[in-house]
Design goal:
Shape of chain B: globular
Radius of gyration of chain B: 24 Å
Radius of gyration of chain A: 23 Å
Strand content of chain B: 35-45%
Distance between the termini of chain B: 60 Å
Number of helices of chain B: 11
Number of strands of chain A: 24
Structural class of chain A: alpha+beta
Number of strands of chain B: 23
Helix content of chain A: 10-25%
Helix content of chain B: 10-25%
Number of domains of chain A: 2
Oligomer: heterodimer
Chain lengths: 463, 454
């Protein structure tokens, strides 16, 4: 493996020859393996090893990013020789403390020694035995990424992040009726995150729940759907709603228009910061430092120390996710939310692990309070408009609630609401807490950021 | 480098692989450079420049397939990589339905060129192009603009153990701009293989003109509507058909599984997958196996005609490769949409609508079931309500700036059957949601879609 500290220092030195106001170098070495198993067939495998560098400079208040997989000082200097001053907006970075640190994600079971393909093969065999599973695919990977960040302000951060996971796609059938389910187990950490027994149970439960909907589910009438004023949503539905309609609109780059032609805008503007978005029940956090999650990191990709961010405090907008550039715009300090999907792309303002804080009630308490309504367990289809105002989550597994208890499975429930109506309808939180893995798209070129999202079950009561 | 030329390098990597005992090998080497000039709040926000030169090696031993990357093309390093691959491939399990890779040699019907202006473009020139679009839009009444200017240059070569060797170079440029007025926005994109093929001032003029084209705003109710899709939203939506007809998707369950020969669209609809339409950005004379690309009718006169294959899936299903090989699975090329009965322009489509919506941009298309084709998509930017053949107002369902607040829900096969008319003129287009993948499409009228409104 190349000496990342030497490469980073040399890259920074090359960048500083342009005499910028600010320069940084981010060197990454990654080694990954992937294994697709499609409908029981082994469709090859891949081994990839790469080293590259990203340099960012602020020169004449212009932000310029260069990436290359030829990280030698001479190669970088040659590319930087082509740099020309250009017309553009003034950019400045907020002050960030100088950091010198090194960290390694917890890895209780080494991913290097783990036989991922063997375990995924066993899972595939398990799925093949489930008569309701019509189609299945498992794409699994393990990756070790080592990074070294240095900047012209004296910060120096080393990170060692193992990553293991899978993307599992299932089609469940009963008669002519089918439903689909996508699952993304894994995270930043050791092989304990892909423990076979837990995955086997998860898949068994998922298949059984969907098969139950297909065989015993009912379609609610249009009138019944309209009358479903009490809705209990599971931690998974809480999570997707947290991510889409609160997390994204609280990304500072969206609020200030940087994603306007790409991943969209926000219902928030500078003037609306601090507005009431949710019921007082809701305190909503983004926290990168949770071990074993997809969104784990201790320093962001601008070398800023990560910390939990309280996006919503008892219903009110409290804090935008920022990088150093938007922290400067907001006259504050970055809260460490800049992430890239690798050395080749720029860091963007991103979520990490985003969730609603849990309550004290049990799920049964929520169902009892709802009395009659619908319980949504998980989803397949979802989307939201580009201002994050109008979202829909389709109930892949849902049940009617009758007299405070779960009743029949429901096939055709969709929760389609205005954001403020949705979040102000929250009346109770359960004491459960789950985080669900996902991949979030943003930027141009599009970058997929591994994240988690979740919280407790919520009782929503619509007027 | 092992040898001076890229093609010779690819051939040498294949030879080293066969010497090591692999049954088959495909080597691909490339050198690419790209830029991204981001436009935010009517200014150039930043410029990103990316360089990548490396290679991929596809190896087969006893039906075990291994894909590895090669960052260092020095011979000693390549030899070490191949030796490591020999050990690693024993870990992989055989692909039971592997039938080999395409047998050459092949002649290619065309070649692509790279634009020297793209290859040598500088920061200040990129910024000038972006400002040409921005300034025109602002001077024409836009209160804000956002967008992206992207350039890409690559030269590449490949060789395989089946007597295939090829090389090419290509370039493309893409400029997207979203122009805002106080009440509406409109986004469009220009694509070209040459930098000079972009028309930034025209893009600025057209997007700002469309953004301010409707004087009134209004609300609509949930219900059934006819939809007129402009080329970008309509084309990128229909292009998903080609994603679903690659053989690997068909085997894993797609809305087109077991439907070859069946009517899946209006009899006026023909959809091609094309890798050899010379004027489209991103085309290549050959696929990842070196097999010549072609234009394949996927749906012809409404009937599902072909799935998309690489060599192995073609042999498995007793047909011929369609030139869609990726390094593991088949992949779609570009989509071309043709409609038999066309009208002169979008006004003629509007005249056919009693109650409908013109959708100028859409994103976040998601399926509730890929096997049935049920999906929904979110219109963004200008959406115009049409009544009795006239444009009435731009739709605004709430007070949030730039919010449209409607959702289109449909089924892909139902939608393909309900395309009732299209404009004669087609354009090459794409969208951010489509990751820049191009398609050629007209504006099209789809009857009887469901709209829900906030």
């Amino acid at each position: 493996m190349p000496q990342l500290d030497v490469l980073a220092e040399r890259a920074l030195k090359a960048a500083e020859r342009l005499h910028p106001e600010y320069a940084e170098a981010y060197v990454e070495h990654s080694y990954s393996q992937f294994f697709p198993i499609e409908q029981g067939k082994f469709n090859g495998g891949g081994f990839s090893e790469s080293t590259g560098v990203r340099i960012r400079i602020l020169k004449g208040k212009r932000l310029y990013t260069l990436s290359t997989n030829r990280p030698s000082e001479a190669a970088i200097a040659s590319l930087l020789d082509r740099y020309r001053a250009f017309a553009g907006m003034d950019t400045a970075f907020a002050h960030a403390p100088r950091e010198k640190d090194s960290y390694k994600a917890e890895e209780r079971k080494s991913i290097d020694d783990a036989d991922l393909l063997r375990d995924m093969t066993e899972l595939d065999k398990d799925l093949a035995k489930m008569h309701a599973v019509k189609y299945r695919s498992i794409y699994s990977w393990k990756e070790r990424s080592r990074t070294h960040f240095v900047n012209s302000e004296g910060s120096e951060i080393r990170a060692d992040k193992p990553d293991v996971g899978a993307f599992i796609a299932l089609t469940i059938a009963a008669g002519k009726d089918t439903r689909q389910r996508m699952l993304q187990p894994g995270g930043v950490g050791g092989y304990e995150l892909m423990e076979y027994t837990a995955l086997h149970k998860m898949l068994t439960d998922e298949v059984n729940a969907i098969e139950n909907v297909l065989t015993k589910g009912i379609n609610l009438s249009a009138a019944a759907l309209k009358e479903a004023k009490n809705v209990v949503i599971s931690p998974e539905i809480t999570g997707i709603a947290v991510h889409e309609s609160v997390g994204h609109p609280n990304e500072a780059d969206r609020v200030f228009g940087r994603e306007a032609a790409q991943a969209g805008l926000s219902y928030l503007t500078r003037e609306k910061l601090g507005m009431k978005i949710c019921s007082p029940e809701i305190t909503l956090i983004d926290n990168p430092s949770i071990k074993g999650t997809k969104g784990f990191y201790l320093y962001d990709d601008e070398g800023v120390r990560a910390r939990p961010k309280t996006i919503i405090d008892k219903g009110y907008q409290n804090e935008l996710l920022t990088n150093r550039a938007y922290a400067h715009v907001l006259h504050t300090r970055s809260n460490g939310s800049a992430r890239s999907d690798g050395y080749a792309n720029e860091p963007l303002v991103r979520m990490s692990n985003t969730y609603v804080e849990k309550g004290v009630a049990t799920l049964d308490d929520l169902l009892a309070e709802a009395k009659n309504g619908v319980y949504m367990k998980n989803f397949m289809e979802w989307n939201i408009d580009d201002t994050r105002t109008f979202s829909r989550y389709q109930g892949n597994v849902a049940y009617s609630i009758k007299n405070g208890s779960l009743d029949k499975p429901v096939k055709n429930f969709k929760l389609e609401k205005d954001t403020l109506e949705f979040w102000n309808a929250v009346k109770m939180r359960s004491n459960e807490f789950e985080l669900w893995g996902a991949t979030c798209g943003k930027g141009e070129p599009q970058q997929g950021a591994p994240v988690t999202m979740g919280g407790p079950s919520l009782l929503l009561q619509f007027g | 480098m092992i040898l001076m030329g890229m093609q010779e390098t690819a051939k040498q990597i294949v030879k080293l692989s066969l010497d090591e005992g692999f049954d088959e090998a495909i080597a691909s080497v490339f050198d690419s450079a790209s830029t991204y000039t981001k436009i935010t709040n009517s200014k150039v926000d930043s410029i990103i420049e990316k360089h990548n030169d490396a290679g991929w090696l596809y190896l087969v031993s006893k039906k075990r397939i291994l894909l590895i990357n090669i960052e260092d093309l020095e011979e000693q390093s390549v030899r070490a990589k191949i030796k490591a691959a020999k050990k690693a491939i024993s870990y992989i399990k055989p692909k039971d339905d592997y039938f080999g890779i395409a047998e050459g040699p092949f002649k290619y019907g065309f070649s692509t060129d790279a634009d020297a202006a793209i290859k040598h473009v500088s920061n200040d020139s990129l910024s000038d192009i972006a400002y040409a679009a921005i300034n025109e839009a602002v001077n024409n009444g836009a209160v804000n603009t956002a967008g992206m200017l992207h350039t890409y240059y690559t030269r590449s070569a490949m060789a395989s153990s089946r007597n295939v060797a090829a090389e090419s170079q290509s370039s493309n440029a893409r400029l997207s701009l979203r122009s805002f007025t106080d009440d509406a926005s409109f986004q469009d994109v220009h694509l070209s293989q040459q930098l000079a093929g972009l028309s930034p001032m025209k893009l600025g003029q057209d997007t700002s003109e469309m953004a301010k084209s409707m004087k009134e705003t209004g609300r609509i109710k949930s219900g059934k509507y006819d939809i007129i899709f402009l080329p970008s939203p309509g084309g990128t939506l229909v292009a998903q058909v080609n994603d679903f007809v690659v053989m690997s998707e068909i085997e894993q369950g797609s809305m087109f599984t077991d439907k070859l020969g069946e009517k899946v669209a209006s009899k006026n609809v023909t959809i091609y997958d094309s890798g050899d339409t010379r004027e489209m950005v991103g085309v290549s004379p050959y696929d990842a196996e070196g097999y010549p690309t072609q234009t394949t009718p996927v749906i012809e006169d409404g009937v599902l005609k072909n799935y998309l294959h690489n060599y192995t899936t073609a042999l498995k299903y007793k047909t011929k490769s369609t030139g869609n090989a990726g390094l593991i699975n088949p992949e779609p090329n570009a989509m071309i949409f043709r409609y038999r009965k066309t009208v002169k322009d979008i006004d003629a489509l509007v005249a056919k609508v009693d109650k409908g919506v013109i959708v100028t941009n859409a994103w976040y298309t998601r399926y509730s079931n890929y096997l049935t084709g049920d999906f929904s998509t979110m219109p963004r930017d200008l959406a115009i309500y049409v009544e009795n053949g006239e444009r009435k107002f731009s739709i605004r369902q709430g007070s949030v700036k730039s919010m449209i607040g409607i959702r289109v829900t449909d089924n892909m096969i139902k939608m393909l059957n309900n395309i009732e008319c299209a404009t004669k003129d087609t354009v090459q287009t794409t969208s951010w949601d489509a990751n820049g993948t191009p398609c050629i499409a007209p504006s099209m009228l789809v009857r009887d879609s469901e709209i829900t409104a906030v």
